[in-house]
């Protein structure tokens, strides 16, 4: 058989096939996963993170900064409502989340006690993934509210990734999809 006559080795699934394979139940944010970039720096990252939240079945908790709604609107390429929770007081919101029985609060932070991303177990209970400011990290008053910290190892010169990339990696791991 000539090379040109061979069928393709990889068959790409159609969007319809993909939709049929995904979960059949309705999304319920309070029993799963919430991404919480509570101190965002760049709006483009929030839109990207919103798309990741949809991909893994998570919700997004964001502060009520004046520019955040427009950033989410620009970034919502799905053009349908997504699960977004508006937070007026990030530290107070984290305190209430942590006090909710069965909720685990995991921060993405470079800390001595941090577990490496590869060793992070999938979320088995309601989990809030806290993402800090891209330049300053998670504020000191919020660090005490974390049940655990996760670190994303890096080989290059940088010390951190942007919120969208870091959040996406952690959400996929917590969702059990990596």
From TrEMBL:
Keywords: Methyltransferase, Transferase. Coiled coil: none annotated. GO terms for biological process: methylation; RNA processing. Signal peptide: none annotated. Gene3D superfamilies: 3.40.1280.10. GO terms for molecular function: RNA binding; RNA methyltransferase activity. InterPro entries: Alpha/beta_knot_MTases, rRNA_Methyltransferase, SpoU_MeTrfase, tRNA_m1G_MTases_N. Pfam families: SpoU_methylase (PF00588). Residues 44-172 form the tRNA/rRNA methyltransferase SpoU type domain. This is RNA methyltransferase. It comes from Actinomadura montaniterrae. The lineage of its organism: Bacteria, Bacillati, Actinomycetota, Actinomycetes, Streptosporangiales.
